[in-house]
Design brief:
The protein is of the alpha/beta class and 533 residues long. The protein has 18 helices and 19 strands. The longest helix is centred in the middle third of the chain and has 23 residues, at 167-189. It is globular and about 65 Å long.
Length: 533
């Protein structure tokens, strides 16, 4: 397939959860040579995520250039209008046009690997390997992926460090390695003008092993540090290898982005927001129902949905929704005329109750330290605008503690309980995760004439900037803007290309514009980083 873009292809590598502070620290340490070289030769800046800083809305805003009020995506699921239940968001539930459809409409092909909300896969000009809400492999077109799977490496020999990881995370590594190999195969044999691949490893390792790395975390121990203290760094090294291999296949005129949807940070406690609502006499359960003993057969992310049928709606004024956000809970008022059994009058009563709840939450303090742990409480309309802003929660609560829908026995707060070192469970349970989301991800761009500095960048800026780099027309209704470093791009100028640099060196040719230091980094990068010893 011949690509159509006159400016070269646009290739986007997503590193879910890549954290600016960690990336910068590891680059300074010299353990991420591939990413370091891209940052030095291109541009780098922390990337402001959505509120909530959650993969569902963040990757959707990345793909559409629009705020959640225009996409209708605030979580992995949304409340069903006129009902007390939630439903998963699928590819048909992204209510704004993503850049691959925009590109297709203008004659550009697109390839997607593990992009969120691409299940079931769309029939596009190009290819799709679905991402969440499924973790299974689903493809379009199937024949092309059958060909790819037949030709990619199948055997993995994990290093001793990786062998210590919980099976869940070793499996996550294998899936990411498969995604990388499929991308490289498709890039060589079925290249598209716009190509996106997203890797999950950094997010998952940081959630589980943050306390092993962080000496200030209450759950940290010397034993953990000696066994798994470098688990997160090892994961970043692996991802640096993936980035380097993909960068090694750049062609003249190509533009490469490395993007993350949010970062991560330490988390030591859980705040049970439903307990708080019960304490304030805003949430009631049916008589005889003990919510603290409730153990539904569903996944934990659907815990609150399963509780809905046991809520006494005739007395309940507020309820906790969007529970999988962890660090940013959505509260909804039980409004007459909007909710099936609403009891709060719209207008003055709604406004007064919402302000009362916001003030009470902002006044909360940790009973042990006396410190505030609530960072912000927003009204939905303060954050979102657009056709689907009404789907947003009435209140968004941001916290440095995990916000859980689980009703705890006589407790507003509980400590995070990380799993043991060699725990065999494959669960990715929120109650065991010692790292949670932070507001900034990363943005790296490398390509023709991309130079200088950026003052700021928002995740909604990625879509219009990618379309501009591709040479496509940008829709007027995007919230994001083309980043200034791209507005002077010239067409058909050859970028510094790792692969070309190494070939030139091996042939005893000069490589104009590439310093000996950069050449050395490029060579180290393409040799691979030993992510499987």
């Amino acid at each position: 397939m011949k690509t159509k873009s006159q400016r070269g292809r646009v290739i986007i590598i997503g590193l879910d959860g890549a954290t600016p502070e960690l990336v910068e620290r590891l680059c300074a340490k010299g353990v991420l040579p591939g990413i370091s070289a891209l940052m030095e030769k291109g541009i780098y800046i922390p990337l402001k995520s959505t509120t909530p800083a959650h993969s569902g809305p963040a990757w959707t805003s990345f793909a559409t250039g629009k705020n959640p009020g225009k996409t209708g995506v605030y979580s992995y699921q949304r409340n069903v209008k006129g009902q007390y239940r939630q439903e998963l968001v699928f590819s048909t539930g992204m209510l704004a046009e993503p850049i691959w459809r925009i590109a297709n409409r203008q004659g550009f092909s697109a390839g997607l690997i593990n992009v969120i909300f691409t299940y079931p896969p769309e029939e596009i000009d190009g290819y799709v390997l679905s991402g969440l809400p499924t973790r299974d492999y689903h493809f379009y077109p199937e024949k092309r992926f059958a060909e790819a799977f037949k030709n990619i490496p199948k055997k993995f020999n994990p290093s001793k460090k990786v062998a210590l990881w919980n099976k869940c995370y070793r499996d996550a590594l294998i899936k990411d390695a498969n995604r990388k190999n499929i991308f490289l195969y498709m890039n060589k044999n079925h290249p598209a003008d716009l190509q996106i691949v997203i890797f999950e490893l950094a997010d998952r390792l940081q959630h589980r092993y943050w306390h092993c790395m962080d000496e200030t975390h209450p759950a940290h121990t010397p034993e953990l540090a000696s066994r798994l203290g470098d688990a997160i760094e090892t994961g970043y090294k692996i991802l640096d290898g993936f980035v380097s291999e993909i960068a090694g296949d750049l062609e003249p005129g190509d533009t490469l982005f490395v993007v993350s949807d949010h970062g991560l940070r330490a988390c030591a406690k859980t705040f049970h927001l439903n307990n708080f609502l019960m304490e304030k006499k805003l949430l009631y359960f049916k008589r005889g129902f003990d919510a603290s003993k409730f153990k539904p057969d569903t996944e934990e992310t659907f815990y609150h949905t399963a509780l809905y049928e046991n809520i006494d709606w005739k007395r309940t004024k507020a309820f906790f929704t969007h529970e999988d956000l962890m660090v940013c809970a959505g509260l909804r008022i039980n409004v007459k005329g909007r909710e099936p059994l609403g009891i709060v009058n719209p207008g003055a009563e709604f406004d007064s109750l919402r302000e009362e709840i916001r003030a009470a939450i902002l006044a909360l303090r940790d009973p042990e330290s006396g410190e505030r742990f609530i960072e912000n409480v927003y009204y939905g309309e303060e954050l979102y605008s657009g056709k689907y802003a009404s789907l947003a929660p009435d209140l968004l609560v941001e916290s440095k503690y995990r916000l859980s829908p689980i009703v705890a026995k006589d407790a507003l707060f509980t400590a995070i309980e990380p799993l043991g070192i060699m725990e065999k469970t494959e669960d990715f349970a929120e109650r065991n995760l010692t790292g949670h989301h932070s507001k900034n991800g990363i943005f790296i761009a490398f390509g023709p004439d991309i130079r200088g500095r950026l003052e700021s960048a928002d995740i909604t800026d990625v879509a219009p900037t990618a379309l501009y780099a591709l040479g496509a027309t940008i829709p007027d209704d995007m919230d994001g803007k083309v980043l200034p470093a791209f507005t002077k791009m010239r067409m058909k100028k050859r970028p510094v290309c790792y692969k070309a640099a190494i070939e030139a060196k091996n042939n005893n040719e000069g490589a104009p514009g590439i310093s000996p230091e950069d050449m050395k980094k490029a060579e180290e990068t393409l040799k691979g980083l030993g992510y499987f010893d």
